[in-house]
Fold:
Amino acid sequence: MNAIPVLTIDDVATLDGVLADFLKKAEAELTVVIDRGGNVISQYGDMTVMDVTIIAALAAGSFAATRELARRIGEIEFNALYHQGNGSHIFMNSVDEETIMITVFGPRTTVGLVRFYSTGAAQQVALLLKALQKTNHGFTFEASDISTAPIFTDSVPAPTAPS
Structure:
C-alpha cells in the first residue's frame, strides 16, 4: 500500500479548484474524493446533502462489491456506478487504482452531464495526487505509523528524575 501524501494548504486549494470547476460545469451539489478504504481525501460543495464520512465508507464498500461482480463476468472492474433516486442521485467513478470520486446531484442536471465532466475532473485529480505522491513535500503518512507510535505500547516509560 502506498503512503498517503500530506496535503498542504496550496494542494488543498488546487484540488478544491478542480472540484469547484467540476461542480459548476456538471451543475451538481457535492463531490467527494476518497481512497478505496473509504477515507475522505477532499470534498467540495454542499456538505449538508449527506454525512460525508458514512457515504465515503459505503461508497468504498459498494465499489469493492461491484469490482468482484465485474471480475465474475471477466472485467477488471466497473469504473463508474450510478444510483438513481427519486430526487437525489449518486454517481461514483474511479479516479485511479486507489481513489474514487463520488458526486451527488439532483433534478437540475443529468447523469450524462455529470458523467461527461467527471471524466476530466477525475483525470485532473489523478494527476494532482500522482504529483503529490512524487514530491510528498517531505511528508508521508503510513497506517503502520499509528500502530508503532509510542502511545500504543504496553509498557509505560520510566519517570525521569527532576533536574
About this structure: The radius of gyration is 19 Å. Strands lie at 4-5, 30-35, 40-45, 80-84, 89-96, 99-105, 140-141. The mean pLDDT is 84.
